[in-house]
Amino acid sequence: MPQEFLNLYEHFISPSPDHISIVDRGYKYLVVSEAYLKAHGRKKDEIVGHSVPELFGEEVFRGFVKGYLDRCFAGEVVNYRAWFDFKVTGRMFMNVTYYPYLDSSGAINGAVVISRDITDYKISEEMLRESEEKYRHLFENLNDAALLADVETGLLVETNRQGETLLGRPRHEIIGMHQSRIHPPELAQEYREKFAAHTAKGRAADYDGLVVKKDGTIVDVHISAAPLTIGGMRLILGIFRDITERKRYEAALLESKRFTESLIRSMHDGFSIFDGGRRFVDANPAFFRMTGFAREELQRRLPPMPYWPEDAGRIEDIFDEIGSGAIGDREFMFRKKDGAEFPVIVSPFVLRGADGKVINYCATVKDITYRKDIEREQLRSQKLESLGLLAGGIAHNFNNLLTGIMGNISLALLFGPDEKTAKRLVEAEKACNHARDLIKQFITFSKGGAPVKNPVILESVAPEWCSFVTSGSRSRCDFRIDQDILPIDADEGLISQAIQNIVVNADQAMIDGGVIRVSVFNTSVDSQGRPLDGPHVCVRIEDSGIGMSEAELERIFDPYYTTKKDSSGLGLASAYSIIRGHGGLIEVKSRPGQGSAFSVYLPAYKAFEEERSRKRPCPGTRRVLVMDDEEMIREAAGEIISHLGYEVEAVEDGEKAIEAFRASIKAGKPFDLVIMDLTIPAGMGGKEAVRHILEIDPAAKVAVSSGYSNDPAMSEFRKFGFSGVIAKPYRAGDIIALVEKLLG
């Protein structure tokens, strides 16, 4: 039973004169009213948390109370009247009612016991038998409405002043009415049957009901009915207590309980509750998911908690601070059940009783792992941006200086200096060229950051990258590329730079030139046969150059480390950085005088294998819509996609794309894929058009294309409703990979 509900219930019943308690199925008290404590002369902690036998004694519990509780736990509303001897208030005649307590799922979790002092009523009943005059006095001065009805006829024969007030009628109108008429007309038959049951059984009964005033107002009442005989006349005495306020309290309490429980259960953040003794009571589902612990593992535990690896003394200090009124969020490191730590923001507060003492320590707990990651990424991005700006500024100024130096060297050579001077000028010119290359690599290496990835088919671009590097040198590349090479998810510009840097290294290693063997193949293991994390594409670059020693291999990827004359030492370092940034790895095998082999393993585009394993539909049944303001691009993309066997339609702006998409659905030939340009000058671009298309068909597949890679719609395309992205300029292999990815 949630502690916050118990606290609220205790707050509402505190001023009640009735003895009210809640007992769980283990016969332990969960809540007791002030009147209950006062009658027994006990403090709250002497009853709450203790069992019924501890209060009444095992003999009374077994022989009297337990039977009633067990009937209540079985679903029965139990009522009885009896004399009780209380330590403080003495002997009292009580009307006791047991109500089953149901949780939100309908299961019985305990019993709500309400005991009302009806000693006055009992005395009145006894005195009625003895003295009409005494009866009349007590009857008239009861605090509740009292009505007498004839058992034989069901007619009301007497009422007190409170009865007149309750029914809004004078005494002469009430006397002679049938008892069923004081209830709402639609319930008349129900109350006739209740009256007949009282008469037949000849015993008292208590229940909640409704009465209707003369003006039609419906009033909630609690009815205590008992048979009695006066002057040989068999009567039913009904005591009616107005419980409108109680009903309102109960409704408000129930609504508050439901709202609070619903709110806490639906929270994305964690919520935990400790009792006044700092024992863990309960938490919401988000908290248990967050920590990995189950409720049973934490209940009733005292700090330190397994998910809170703070020093025990420090935790006690925190509880003390909160209990003394300190407010404000606190940041901690929590630990999951599996040992993983994660940062949280804890927002604590306390619930206090009427005496000001802490009843519960409560707190919301927010996992800020994502926020911390974002902060780190932002800091890293700011540093890299600053470094990039600095590098760019230095490079710009330095290249201006180099331009002036190299121009003057060229002029000096043009003027035809002597052979010795010319030789020195040529060497200076070479050094300037190397300096220019060094600055270029420094800029690339310094920018860092995450690559902007797209599917790349290496078999169509790797030969071009490698051949470009060796053009004009004494080396050439020999290619061996397997069929059905998987696409990789990569930043094509960065990966081309990394591969080219390795080819440059191979070319420089062969002083007299030679053959650079480039192999491209699919694999799931490295060169040692060790499994990789899923399918990869390997690019292996082998040369027959001077090779490297073990000591050189250990430092080959260190920035600025080089064994070659006039080399910056950044080429392989930047290649390593780029490949690691793509989730790949580099292996190097080399021996002095026997050449080197660089194996670059790049993760395959993961969705490709899944899509390729599915049964492919007939391409002719698929239709693709291309939107671009450049006619040349529309024609080229259309021709490439048509070559795959798909039907293609092309339009020049977003409005026409929407019209074509809507028309295709009406015609029963919807487009399976839409490829849209992000920006259309003086027209609707893809960012706006995709919203309209998804309104027409929320399941539509739409890819975005642009040359502006810094637009958020390219780097975070899914947030804008796109299913895929392709950056301009793109090759045939790129658009084929996109179509394969989205349509299979």
Plain-language structure description:
- By secondary structure, this protein is an alpha+beta fold.
- The protein has 6 domains: 3-117, Beta-Lactamase (2-Layer Sandwich), CATH 3.30.450; 121-245, PAS domain (Beta-Lactamase, 2-Layer Sandwich), CATH 3.30.450.20; 266-367, Beta-Lactamase, CATH 3.30.450; 372-447; 454-607, 2-Layer Sandwich (Heat Shock Protein 90); 615-743, Rossmann fold (3-Layer(aba) Sandwich), CATH 3.40.50.
- Helix content is 43%, strand content 26%.
- It is built from 26 helices and 27 strands.
- The strands form 6 sheets. It has a 5-stranded antiparallel beta sheet, with helices on both faces. Strands 7-6-10-9-8 form a 5-stranded antiparallel beta sheet, with helices on both faces.
- A hairpin with a 5-residue loop joins strand 21 (585-590) and strand 22 (596-603).
- The longest helix has 46 residues, at 369-414.
- It is elongated and about 150 Å long.
- The model is unreliable at 445-450 and 610-620 (pLDDT under 50).
SSE arrangement:
Blueprint: H1 3-13, E1 19-24, E2 29-32, H2 34-40, H3 44-47, H4 52-56, H5 58-73, E3 78-86, E4 90-102, E5 108-117, H6 119-130, H7 132-140, E6 145-150, E7 156-159, H8 161-167, H9 171-174, H10 188-201, E8 205-212, E9 218-230, E10 233-242, H11 244-266, E11 270-275, E12 280-283, H12 285-291, H13 295-298, H14 312-323, E13 330-335, E14 341-352, E15 358-367, H15 369-414, H16 419-447, E16 454-456, H17 458-470, E17 476-481, E18 488-490, H18 492-509, E19 515-525, E20 531-543, H19 550-555, H20 571-581, E21 585-590, E22 596-603, H21 606-613, E23 623-627, H22 631-643, E24 647-651, H23 654-666, E25 673-677, H24 686-696, E26 702-706, H25 712-715, E27 724-727, H26 732-743
Parallel strand pairs: 17-19, 23-24, 23-25, 25-26, 26-27
Antiparallel strand pairs: 1-2, 1-5, 3-4, 4-5, 6-7, 6-10, 8-9, 9-10, 11-12, 11-15, 13-14, 14-15, 16-18, 19-20, 20-22, 21-22
Helix pairs in contact: 6-7, 15-16, 17-18, 18-20, 21-26, 23-24
